[in-house]
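Technical annex, item 7. During the second reporting period the consortium partners agreed on a shared format for inverse folding records so that results from different sites could be compared directly. Each record opens with the tokenized structure and is followed by the designed sequence. A conforming record, contributed by the partner at site C, is shown below for reference.
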């Protein structure tokens, strides 16, 4: 019999990841630069996969999976991203970095609890994804590779985007 709090914790993680998908939707819609968009799209896909993987664990434990809705109007994360999106690519990236740091901490915290080895491995993998996302976004926000003259980072990208 599954521990009820185990399901609840998985549920919270999956909900964060579902909110992240919504926040990425907003960020991607506001960023015109192809290489940045492409990368954010791949991060969005990671979060989608996190929701699906966590939902599988939740179902295995007899719980209700988290629904993935495209409309996340209640999400503070999405609201913050939309607001800073009005200020341009750099501000949007800083907002997304804040979100990513939150996910990293949430997974870190989750790892302090007892899990089966399989679930623990999954949570560790997700945390690694979040760190990879955070590292890339922090770097991009600092170096602003989309600004003209910073070609090496943008190699192969269309100019003037
Ligand atoms: Fe995640
Ligand atoms: Fe992430």
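Designed sequence (site C submission):
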């Amino acid at each position: 019999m599954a521990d009820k709090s185990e399901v609840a914790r998985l549920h919270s993680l999956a909900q964060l990841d579902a909110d992240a998908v919504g926040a990425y939707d907003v960020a991607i819609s506001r960023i015109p630069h192809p290489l940045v968009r492409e990368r954010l799209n791949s991060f969005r896909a990671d979060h989608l996969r996190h929701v699906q993987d966590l939902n599988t664990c939740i179902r295995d434990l007899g719980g209700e999976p988290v629904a993935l809705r495209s409309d996340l109007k209640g999400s503070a994360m999405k609201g913050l991203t939309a607001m800073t999106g009005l200020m341009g690519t750099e501000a949007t990236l800083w907002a997304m970095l804040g979100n990513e740091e939150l996910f990293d901490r949430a997974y870190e915290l989750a790892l302090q609890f007892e899990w089966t080895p399989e679930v623990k491995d999954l949570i560790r993998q997700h945390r690694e994804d979040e760190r990879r996302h955070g590292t890339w976004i922090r770097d991009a926000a600092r170096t602003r590779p989309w600004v003209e003259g910073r070609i090496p980072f943008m190699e192969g990208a269309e100019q003037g985007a």
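The chain has five helices and no strands. Residues 4-142 form a domain with the Ferritin fold (CATH 1.20.1260.10). All partners now use this format for quarterly exchanges.
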